[in-house]
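Researcher: Structure prediction, please.
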Amino acid sequence: MCHVPFTSVARQTRSLGFPPADDEVREFLTSGKVYNDRSTSESSYIRARYFLSALFYVAAETIKNIDAEYTPSEGDTKRAYQIEKFRKFMSEGQTMGSSGPQRVNFYHEVVEKAEVCRDCVLLNSF
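Model: Predicted structure follows.
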């Protein structure tokens, strides 16, 4: 089991801060769409549930790619290597005002997969 910390930031677009806002994540999680006549709170729960499922899936796939590059060295642990590389992956190219391309693509893939799960809910197939 690997423990890799990650964050997403739901701050408003174009506001400065670090890490910068993850606009696509915020838009997905705060959309007011209601599913199959469910309440707003139930719909919010469904969105969050599928977002987290997709997030863990994409994170695991990303870590598998990181693991493929791992070469043990003295004093190094695989866990420390994974954490360091994942952090670099998520922060490379970002500034106070914008996310780096890898982070943007990572969360785009997460939202894309969460949308597929959400559509399954719309089809009553969850």
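Model: The mean pLDDT is 80.
Researcher: Thanks, that helps.
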